[in-house]
Each structure stands twice: as C-alpha cells, then as structure tokens.
Amino acid sequence: MWCWIRRQLGFDPPHQTETRTIYIANRFPQSGLYTPQKFIDNRIISSKSPECNSQPHILEPLVLPLPQENMFQYTVWNFVPKTLFEQFRRVANFYFLIIFLVQLMIDTPTSPITSGLPLFFVITVTAIKQGYEDWLRHNSDNEVNGAPVYVVRSGGLVKTRSKNVRVGDIVRVAKDEIFPADLVLLSSDRLDGSCHVTTASLDGETNLKTHVAVPETAVLQTVASLDTLEAVIECHQPEADLYRFTGQMMITQQLEEILRPLGPESLLLRGARLKNTKEIFGVAVYTGMETKMALNYKSKSQKRSAVEKSMNTFLIIYLIILIAEAIISTILKYSWQAEEKWDEPWYNQKTEHQRNSSKILRFISDFLAFLVLYNFIIPISLYVTVEMQKFLGSFFIGWDLDLYHEESDQKAQVNTSDLNEELGQVEYVFTDKTGTLTENEMQFRECSINGIKYQESNGRLVSEGPTPDSSEGPFYRNSLSHLNNLSHLTTSSSFGTSLENEIELIKKHDLFFKAVSLCHTVQISNVQTDGIGDGPWQSSLAPSQLEYYASSPDEKALVEAAARIGIVFIGNSEDTMEVKTLGKLERYKLLHVLEFDSDRRRMSVIVQAPSGEKFLFAKGAESSVLPKCIGGEIETTRIHVDEFALKGLRTLCIAYRQLTSKEYEDIDRRLFEARTALQQREEKLADVFQFIEKDLVLLGATAVEDRLQDKVPETIEALRMAGIKVWVLTGDKHETAVSVSLSCGHFHRTMNILELTNQKSDSECAEQLRQLARRIEEDHVIQHGLVVDGTSLSLALREHEKLFMDVCRNCSAVLCCRMAPLQKAKVIRLIKISPEKPITLAVGDGANDVSMIQEAHVGIGIMGKEGRQAARNSDYAIARFKFLSKLLFVHGHFYYIRIATLVQYFFYKNVCFITPQFLYQFYCLFSQQTLYDSVYLTLYNICFTSLPILVYSLLEQHIDPHILQNKPTLYRDISKNRQLSIKTFLYWTILGFSHAFIFFFGSCFLMGKDISLLGNGQMFGNWTFGTLVFTVMVITVTVKMALETHFWTWINHFVTWGSIIFYFVFSFFYGGILWPFLGSQNMYFVFIQLLSSGSAWFAIILMVVTCLFLDIVKKVFDRQLHPTNTEKAQLIKTNSSVKCLDSMCCFSEGEATCASVGRMLERVIGRCSPTHVSRLWSASDPFYTNDRSILTLSTMESSTC
Prior knowledge:
Layout: H1 2-8, E1 19-23, H2 50-54, H3 79-87, H4 91-105, H5 112-145, E2 148-153, E3 156-161, E4 170-174, E5 182-188, E6 194-198, H6 200-203, E7 209-212, H7 215-218, H8 223-227, E8 231-236, E9 247-253, E10 256-262, E11 267-268, E12 273-275, E13 279-286, H9 292-295, H10 306-336, H11 340-343, H12 352-356, H13 359-374, H14 381-393, H15 395-399, E14 413-414, E15 428-431, E16 438-449, E17 452-457, E18 460-463, H16 473-480, E19 489-490, H17 499-518, E20 523-524, H18 526-529, H19 542-545, E21 548-549, H20 553-565, E22 567-573, E23 576-581, E24 584-597, E25 602-608, E26 614-620, H21 622-625, E27 629-631, H22 634-646, E28 649-659, H23 661-675, H24 681-692, E29 696-708, H25 712-721, E30 725-729, H26 734-743, E31 752-756, H27 762-778, E32 784-789, H28 790-799, H29 801-809, E33 813-817, H30 821-832, E34 840-844, H31 850-855, E35 858-862, H32 869-872, E36 876-878, H33 883-920, H34 934-944, H35 947-955, H36 961-966, H37 982-1007, H38 1022-1044, H39 1050-1072, H40 1086-1091, H41 1094-1121, H42 1125-1130, H43 1151-1165
Parallel strand pairs: 15-30, 15-34, 18-19, 27-29, 30-33, 31-32, 32-33, 34-35, 35-36
Antiparallel strand pairs: 1-8, 2-3, 2-4, 4-13, 5-11, 5-13, 6-7, 6-12, 8-9, 9-10, 14-36, 16-17, 16-29, 17-18, 20-21, 22-23, 23-24, 24-25, 25-26, 26-28, 28-29
Helix pairs in contact: 3-5, 4-5, 4-13, 5-34, 10-13, 10-33, 14-33, 17-20, 22-26, 23-24, 27-28, 27-29, 33-35, 33-37, 33-38, 35-39, 37-38, 37-41, 38-39, 38-41
C-alpha cells in the first residue's frame, strides 16, 4: 500500500526492463500467450518532477500503466500534500512547524498565531509561485499535446491529436513539420528512403542531418503499401542520449524473416524538423515523456553556493543560542521558585493538578515554553527573502546590454539563479579552447600532400620552396593541364622532372582531395544542387551556388577548400556520393560510414569508385591516424603537422586503404554482426572499427585556422589580476594548444613552460612530476606554466594525485591538451576536493564540455557554433568569452556583497528583536510573560523590516561598476567568502546584542521610573514599555540598513522611510480602534499615549542615536586606519556626482530624447540630468567601451551610445 502511494505521488519510478518489443501498426500475434506491453501515451508534461528527469517511467509487459498524471509536478489532488512535503524538507520550516505544534499542545506565553501566521505566509507564497508556474506549463503542454497529427490506421490516414499517438503507430510527417514522437524512419518520398532533418531545437545544430530507412521499408511509399507491412522492432528502453539508439527490425516478407539493424541514423527525434523532403512515414517507438527530448528536460541545478552553506552554519549557531537561552531561563526559573514565596505567591495560587504534576514534565513544559518565547531568533523569512532576491536579481543579467551580442542576436541567459553570488567567489576558471577562446569559424590555410607543404592563395595551392626554372616549369605545367586546365593547382620544380613521377604525384593530389570530398558528413540543400550536376562544371559557380551544412566547422572548411581547388562535392543521391573533378561528374557508391567518436578520434568511409575499386578513406587527429599507417610520407608529414600546430592551426591527417573483394566481404560481415547486436553494440562496433582502420597509406594532412575571439587576451589578463587561475582544457594536440595559449595570453613569453607529456608508465610519470616540483622550488621567483596531455594526466591521476596537484597549484597557468570529456570533469573534481576547497568555474561551448560544466561549482555555456548543449546544461550562458569579465567582476561582485549583507543583517535584526525578550524575563520572575504584543511578533519580519533589505539586495552598488571592471584586483577583496567569515559574523552578532542591550536597559533607565509619563496619571505599564522597546528597535534596524546603503534610488528612499512610516500608521490604527474580531486588545490606546509624551520621544531619539553613533565611529576609524582596496576605490572622484540608469540615455537617438528622460528622472528623484552625466571610461579602455548596461545604474555619456 505504501509503495502504491509513493508511486502515485511520483516518488518511486516503476521497475524497468532492458528492451521493448514494438509491433508496427500494432499488429500483435494472433496466437500464443503474448501480453501487449503497456506504454505511456504521447502527452508531453514539461512540469514533471525532478525524479522524472533522471529516471524515465518504463514498465514491464504485465504491469499496469502508470497514470500520466504522476509525471506532473502537481495535480489537483496531490498539490497540497506534495507542496507541504517539499516545504517541510527545509530545516527552518520544519523547525517552525514544531514550534507551532508545541504552542497548540501546551500553555505557551505567545499565541500559536505568532509562529503559524509567518509559517503560513512563507509556505503560501512559495506554493502559489510553484502552482502558478505549473499551471502555465499545463497550458503550454495542452497546446503541444493538442497539435494535429496524421496516423495510418485501417488502411487510411486518420487525423488525430498528438497526445493520442501510441507506440507502434505509423505517423506521416510533411515537409517543415515537427516530429510528434521519436520515430523509426520507414520510408520517404525518395527512392532510397532518406530524408533530411534539422535538430536546432534539440542541440542547436543548424546543419542538415541525413536519416535513412532500411531497404525493405524504403519502397513502401504509400499508405496502402504500409498497411501491409508486417514487422517487429526490438530496441532498448528510452535514454536521454540524443545520439544513441540501438535496435533491430524483423521484417516478414513472403514467410521469410529479414533482420535489419537500427541505429541513430534511423531514429527521428521528437522536436526535430523535416527539411528538403516532401513527406516521410515513421513508426513511433518512444512517446510522451519517454522521448529523448523529454528525457533531456533540464532539472533545477542541485549545486549549492558557499553563501548558502554559511547561512546553514549560522542557523545552527543561532539554534544553539536559542536552546542555551531556553535552558538558562528554565534553570533560573526553578532556582527562583525554590523560595516558597515565589513558588506560589498569594496572587497566583496553584491548582491541585499543578501541585501533583511531575516535576520532570513541568521542566520539559517550561523549557518548550521558553523555546517558543525565543524562537524568533531564527529568521523564518530569511529563506523566502533570499529566494526572491536570487530570482529577481537574475533578471539583471539578462537585461544587461553589455552582455548582449548584436551579431548573433544573443543575450545572456540565467538557467540557475541559485548561484548568482557564487560568481563573486571564483578562484579557478577552466575553459575549453575551440569555440570558447576561438571563433570556431574555420578557414583552410595549409596542407601537406605526399610530404610537400602547400598554402592556399586566391583559390590556388602554392607549394613552399624555390620556383620552377625556365626549363622545367613549362614541362610541368603542360603535363598537368589535362587534369587542371583552369590552373587551380600551381606547383614548383620540387615535383621532379620525370613524367612518371609527375603523373604519380598528380594522382596523389587527386586522391587526397577526393578523400577530403568524400570522407565527411556534409549536406547540401536539394534546391541548391539543382542543375549543378548537369553539364560541365564551372568553378566560378561554386561559391555562389553551393552552400554546405556540417555539424563540424572543420569538415565544412575542408570540403569548401576542395571545391575551390577543383574537386567539388555535389551531394548525396540515394546511396551514392557525387563529386565533380574539374567539371567531370563521378559517382561513388557509399558502402559504409564509420562514425566519428571521441575515443577513436577519427572517422572513415568505405566507397566504391566508378572503376569498381573499393577504398577506405579515413581522417582524424594525427595521434590516431599516423599509428595506423604503414605507407606514405609519415615522418615528413609528422614534421609538417608539428609546424602547422606551432602556428596555432588545427590539423587532421588523411589516409586511405584499397580493399580487395575478399577483405570487403569480411568487413561487411563483421559490421553487420556488430550493428545488429542488441547487447554491447558500441563495444563490438569499436572492435570492428579497429580491425578495419589499419594498414593505411598516408596521403597528407590539412591545417585550418580558428582565430581568437575578440578581447580574449585582455579578459584572461583581467582574470589573472583578479587572483583567478585560468586552466585551458582542450582536445587539440600539444603544439596547437601551446601556440593558442601563447597568442591569447594564457602563457606569457617570459613564463617558464613545464611539460608533463608522453609519459608511458606510472614510475616515469612520478619521476617527471618530482623533477617538475624541484624546478618550481628552485625557480620560485619565475612564473611557471604547465602543459599536460591526456595520457600523462591519466597516469598522474591514477596514483600521484597529491604530487600532481602540488605542481599545478604552484603554476600560474595550466594547459591540458588531448583531453577526453570525462578527463576534463575529473580534473575539475580534483581541484574541488583539494584541501583549499576553491570555487571553480567551467566555460565551454560544445557537447564535449557538458561534463565539466556540470562538475564545476559554476558552469558557463558559450552559445557558439557547436550546438546548444553546453548552454542548455550550464548555469549561465553567454555569447562570447569576453563577457566573462563583466559577469564576474561586476555582477558577481554585486550579487555577493548584496546577499552577504542580507544574510548578516537578518541575523542582526532578529538578535535585536529577541534579546530584550530574554532580558525581560529577569524582571518578571521568568514567568514567560511576552514583552511584545503578538501582532508585533508576527509582523516584525514580514512587514516592518522586510522591504528595505530586499530592495538593498537588488539595487545596491557599493562601488561604481566601471571601477570594478577597470580594477580587477578589487575582486580579491571578496574572495574566500570574506564577507561571511566568522569574524564578520561575530561582529554583526555582537552588534545585535549591544543594540538590544541599549534598547532594553536604555528604556529601563530613561522611562522605567517615570510615573508622570502618561498625561492621565497612569503609570508606565508592561505593554507601554514593550512598545517603546519595539519602536526604538524598528527605527534603529531600519536606519542601520540605510547606513549600509551606498547607492540610493527613489525606491530605496520609498521603502526605507516608508517602512518606518508604515509602522507608525499601523500602530495608530491597530491601537486606536477597538476591533470587533479581536478577542482581547492589550494595545488599545497604548501607542497613542506613549507618543503623546515628550519624554518618550526624547528617549526614542537618544537611544537610536546612541546605537548608531557607535557603529558610525567604528566605520570611520576602520576607513581611516585600515581601509580596504574597495573602500579606497570608493573615494575615486568622478566628474559627476549624479548616477542614472545607463540605458536611459542609450535608447535615444539624440539629446532631445535624452533630455526628456532626464526631465522624467528629475521628477522622480530630482537629481538626474543628462547634461551633467559623464563617463569614467575613454574610447581606449580595453573593456566594453559601448557600455549600455541597464543593471549597473552608473554614469555614462550619452554620446558614447
């Protein structure tokens, strides 16, 4: 019963099986004991719980289907219990629930309303927010689930809703429509059963991807023919990996069963869009929340910031203080009552039941009563205020126009607002290279063919070396003219003089560029290729009529380079690849594609040439291709590759192998067996790929350039000045990575570069690490940089982690090359768990960076050209690496200062609030008499003191943002969580206690014996005394917040002084009227009579000034004797004392509009005039000279907009 209840609430996912069997068109066997499997319907539920994100709901054949409502975050009937469960998982909420229950069960000095109402308020606000968001998602889901879809049923096309699609249904999708479920492609309008899709909505890749159907179903292009299909699909249960699918299709034709493998190339993902294809038919294999798109829904990050951890520590300390006060009060009460006259005074006789009750029970009851009396020292509203501050504050990042990239029309995105303040605590930055530090826009620059280097110049290849002499040059050019009469290829006399050698060399060039044109996954739109395949090709048409789409910019650059040279890839037609060699069309039959993977670091294709010969073309990193080669200019090419890498170019090696008929038959058989395996398919394919890609002949290498992004060197230098160590983690080869590190300023020319590369064994690696440690110790004055490759890193992390970390920590910059994605994450984890526990930040732009982005404390995704997976899985997403400096130095600095002050201030004002209550017990014989009225107890944290600190935490700028960015060293002042250190915490706590003592004893001293206080002759009473203390306290803590505020807007003025005014107005109405719904009204006319006394006003003003004067004196002495760098920077004088919203004058087109904005601001705050506003920065400043931030609220000149 309990398991069923938990499953209905969505906490326990049902049991899962490894595979599922799908009968196409739901044609189940007519005989046997087969029980159809139960699958969830096709409804998308975006408001699912986090558990659904990690575990899809999969069912066994004989298990009843789980109701779809389970996957909603909330339903009508589980909203209340599930919300309460989530809310009371928080320690503070659970604590106040216990206090509330204690107040209900025993006789306590305060009403249960004092704890119940704030608790109810906090839970209600959170529940309304979550319920409203869930309701919006319900409406959005209904629109998606109600979209029209055509399915094949009963021999015809039936129009239905998307939510009604079932697993096994055959679905028709037309051009430019989105796939309603995960479909296995059956056929298309093309004879080969292929289609093109774009997955931009899933991973951001805009390239066209080709998917193909198995030959037996590709010919079924009509509804009638599909209705006769008898086939069964067996595949794995759903998983979130977009690029992984394993299955097989058993097709029955004329009583013969045909088995065909199914892979990612057969699966059409929900959310992808059909392009350049009239229509397709596919069978639904995963529906609803089992689709890969749904399984990739991003759940809320579980990362916790350092501020949150400090806040929990402070809560525990205050809980200890609370318990200690309750114990002390209970002990003192019984000590006082040891005397008979105080145990049972004549005016308070005990009942018979009280006299006979257990002393232990009375002690416990009194302890709980004191616990209730002092419980407000724990700030219940702290959580909800922090959540509001983080949620509302996160909008400023998206609104900051300095983080907006005009070229790509992308603004900064916040995926996790819980880590805003963590941006101000970063100590290590781990960054990818390609697409993060560089543009990821590849340009072909050089190549090496058969041991000769060439550079591209104006669409021609020019070889390096001496120019041909007059006797040899004409002979060479004439012999080449039959192959390149357009002179796209010019060479030198280094080719030799013999005709045979020259023809052989020409064949090598031809084979090299044909390998480049055939070994790829590039696609071309059908519209663009119309007419190109007919007649002789003209080279001048290539740039204007051919537009290639590729998932990798490298592939696109290489195919475009081959086209400029004269070997043009035309496109795919059925199972052939069409290439034009100097105008002559050639068709190569594509037999197999050996897909790229990060372990092999290469890809291959097997094609059949028009002559009938079969070739294997392979390309990949030199470390993965050269060891597989047995022929060609291997050593010369290796030298050329190193030279390319020293220039910062990205290199790939090209090789081939000619296959005999017997070899191909063996390869074809092995590939079929591996691809049809349901178990361990990836491992078997990897073994087969290793078997195929061997005995290669090296053709040459290519070199493409990926230029640096704008302002990368300046950003890295600023990070270094801020005390942040920068590590570059890349998959590129050693020389390329070092060259880029030098060019971007990661490594300085004067830096001593240490290397831990090419290590073969643990002992060799350990010895090298010890040598590096000695060198660092000997040359401790010089800055050191460390270069590590992936192989050596694996050895270092295996048994020498401590030694490796010691070396890394003593290096100013670290470069890790040839890194696998999981190695990147492991390096970050190693830094995270080091004894210093530094805060780490990871920056990347590709899917291979997701693991390190998720591992780091803060993950930054670059919205680049390698898709959107990094941006979707990150905490924050920006368009360019240079925006990182503004994000950390300005936003991170502000967010940290704001929330650190918020946390400290909350504890301070609650100490001020409850300490007088504790002191009052010494004057009332520990009778548990409350000092404040219950209404004041309830509204203190909710109404009277909540808004000033909330507005402060959203708008405070203790220093000009331009100064923060121009002086990165100021970032060091807030590092190591200094604003929430124990020293600072003790200062705020002691300040709270001292102010509380002044409130209480000041009131006692000034007013306690003043019998002429009230005009009607009444003496100073309990409620009058408590109201006086409470009034002084509200004014003091509010003005204290005003003293902490450096940046004043009209909003700050409104909430600060408005809070004090609201308290007075509320008290007048609350105590001045007899409210009929209140059973007893102790405060009737108390507040009015108190303030009618001049002595009371004098006491209030004197105590407020006394409290704040001491604080002001301390601040003045600290600034004069021990000023911080930030305090020094605050004294920098600007040309204007006026600060306005930066964006105010920037969305105008001249002085007229800006002046109107100024007049509007003058009416609002009376002090902003654009004519008086100037900027700190000049046009020569390195960062953001076009500053238009609407966050920074800082000065700027309208002309610079």
